[in-house]
## 1
Amino acid sequence: MTTGATSSGAAGLLNQAVIDEAEDLRRRARFPVGAALQFADMEEAGRESALDRLRVAEPVSWVPALGGWLITSRAAARDMLVPNAGATVEVAENLVRASLGTMMLTSDGAEHTRLRTPFERPFRGQEAAELFTRYIAGECDSLLRPLVGVGAAGSAELGAAFAAPFAVRMAARVLGLSLDDTELIDSFYVAFAEGMVYDGDPTRQQRADQARDDLNEILARELRKVRATPDRSITSVVAHDPETALTDDELIAQLRVVMFGSIETIQASVLNTILLLLQHPEQLAAVRADMSLVAGAVEESLRMIPPVAFIERWTRLAITLDGIDIGAHEFVGMSVLAVNRDPATFVDPLLFDIRRGNARKALSFSFGEHHCLGIHLARLQTVTAVTTILEAMPRLRLLDHEPPAGFAFRRPARLVVEWD
């Protein structure tokens, strides 16, 4: 039996259903593989095989360590993300909302459309290429030139030396913001990412709350500047569009989430792609022989190590998913890491193959109405960054690294490389 949570919570939000002890025990017996899954299996490096075993036995499973259902098959995840699936993000327990606030990623239907539409046009494929290609190349060059010198050998931790400042600078450039302290901005988004981990640790949310308050002050200051002095930036265009009608608080909330996609996921996609290429010398050699293959390497990297590794939804009403009955207002998580390794879609899914023909079927950019707003720009940035790194650093080698890890967002915390 499922108890509670049929009424709306604060600000019209649903409340997650409460599962009593008897129902929990029944589900544990019905889904023994899910019941045995540990939270560390979803977060730590080297434990991905536990998710593969779960997908084979129980592709939609009750996972007490998560406090809800977990989907590990691509077909079921896609079904959960389509607009008519009966799912919602407008729930009080949504940690993305708790960390980043009320914005396009935590709203549904007409409200989601109202908040997202003003930002869509500049992020379309052709517009993104025309607006930002030159800036992306310039940022790559300005960051790599001091590292490589003129034909000099060297080594660096690629995250701090390139990926993080590149992501923050490009976010600032794209949105027309002055974000000079790249380490500070990056630290905010580390705190936001940690706040989206469903492990019950309240200190994560406390750090995210403080980061949000500090970032809000910076964004409010930037918004006042573009209100006073309009320019051609995305922020200025949206702020001065009479049809947009977003309040300053709403605009700041949208900037927070757009920046999130521009910072956390971009540095992850760059680091993950470089790491996988360095771990697969034959694939790296093929890329160096034909740099047009970088795009395929990026897509395959996004599949194998998705920067966004977890997606959450809640059921509005009772649903049946892959033959499993799920009650109303229940938490349903999707492991993008597991979904992207589903052999029903991807042949030899554990093989890193830069020529994989269907890598774009991965759900790394989500699916449905909440699919990634900056998908085209993200691909452009990552392909350009990886290409520039490989061209600037001949005989690039992996010196040291921490394996990619993370529950909600996944990348190596440290990636040390050297070059001749």
## 2
Amino acid sequence: MKFGARNQLAGKVVNIKKGDVMCQVRLDVADGATMNSVMTMESLTDLGIKEGDTVKVVVKAINVLLVKD
């Protein structure tokens, strides 16, 4: 899948805080830094993201998208 966003990092999913509709995914990225992304529970399920997975962090403007290959 191609993306227009050029800012991409690899990150490891270290925690997923689930709510009824939304969830917060915490990632470890380079040099001990962490990032968080909020998405719908439906997106989490569709992407199959779980703790321990390595994902791409795609950053464009104010949006942070997670992509699992």
## 3
Amino acid sequence: MLTAALATVPTFVVVLIGILLNNSRLSDLRSYIDVRFSAIDQRFSDMEKVYEARTNLILGKIEDVDTRLSRLEGRFAR
């Protein structure tokens, strides 16, 4: 009985230590992935702001062209 206990306890301890080390490595991986996704989210937010500014600029130019065309149409409609 003592021989069986002496054979299984060290194996159990080694397996438990392996599980705990693996768990800590998974936690490190998760924190690394969280940081990377946060950086990617920030880049998407920045790009969204850039595209919104460009869209507003284009819409302003379209409104300017529309105003000019309206004036020309009014001039030729007389």
## 4
Amino acid sequence: MTEKTIVTKDSLDTRHAALFVQTASKFKSNIKVSINDKMVNAKSLMCIISLGITNGSQLKITADGADEEDAVKEITSVLQ
């Protein structure tokens, strides 16, 4: 399992959320994103939007699977 905590620089609008989900969906790993105590599936647009990611949000990205390190690295780059 690979985890990384980041602080977002921008809010995640619908277009950026779709890009985030498309990026996460490229990977075979099980990928989760959490804010505070709410954890959601990174491959679900509705789940990502429900997090309400804003400027300065602290997110934890967790991936578990064959390509977990690449997944966390690429997903992190989408958010920063």
